[in-house]
Specification:
The chain is α+β, with helices and mostly antiparallel strands. It has three domains: 113 residues, no CATH class; 75 residues, no CATH class; 134 residues, no CATH class. The strands form two sheets. The protein has an eight-stranded antiparallel sheet with strand order 1-5-12-11-10-9-8-7. The protein has a four-stranded antiparallel sheet with strand order 2-3-4-6. α6 crosses α7 and α8 runs antiparallel to α12.
Amino acid sequence: MSGHQVTSRAFPNEFQKGLGASPGHVAEMFSPELFTLFSQNPEPPSWYIEDLLESPEQTVREQLRLALKQLPTQEIIDASKGYWSGMFKGTYDHDLGCRLWTLSRLAERAVSAARLTEVLSPSQPDCPRPYNHPALRDLVPDAEGLVSLDAFELHGDTLRRGGYAFMVLASVPSANAAYWLLLHTRRLGLYPNVRVRLDPFIVRPEAELPGTCFLMNVYGRPLDWERIRNLRDTEHGRWLPDKTRIATHFTDYAWRPSDDEVVFVCEELPAREEIDHRGSRYLHAVYKRSKDQIVHLDGAIRWYDHSEYSNRVDQHLRTVGKTGRRVKIFRIDTSISREAFEDLAPSFFVWNYDVAHYFGAS
């Protein structure tokens, strides 16, 4: 297992209650080596956990089997009610299948929680992960933890530099969530003007993380920009999810006019049961009427504790103000066209069909 080890610090008390097991048990369930393996793999643990049972590394096999044995009994009972026996390709008894499925879900949530902890309160504040890696030694992140995309070579959904592959910090618990955003920034020639936050854990030699390409068709048509250009009062809306790949409570948006500018904000609030290991996706843009262009664009994760979340759901985004703890994922430091904005915004909110429809998807 290459790269930096992720220690047991990855299990903060504030997140453990959301992992589906008791705090002490979660900390004991994953050894540092096993947790590092899960955290450095961008794929969901359920895709490969079965193969780890036959890993060439004896330590991995032993630690995985020990973790499977330590699963809480209630977790196994709950899993057996919804477990699909065809999930894994091997021929296992029902109990082992339930254990593999349950452990993979706990691992995925534990990694997401640890990732949030690391970016909010880095273990090495002066040089947070992964910027302490030798391949990034000459890159200095800015105050928001962002570095220029221009310093990397893009391969699918990975960023290559110095023989190693990195990934952009995902806005939701799915490593390829930034793929389409990167695709559009390259197509639009924006690379030198885009800064991104790197995932703190995913650092692998290029050969071990070659990058994956995906297909997604988005057909755009213009918003009513004439209305936005002449806006005098705040325009806002809220979408309740119909179908989506991620658990979402609702999505708010607002256009707020001020002199020559109209500020656009949009936030996808996760479901309440998700907030211990996932933040909201938050987009902020500034449209300048006189230039008829977007003069600033950035995307972030906004993490809420339970009290902040309760206050947030009772208000619309336009009245909330600053709340939660925000981690910037990307920022574009140049003016872009309205058409470019129509591509980038739904790419940031990938899998949110309400946002896609608002920006013109069929």
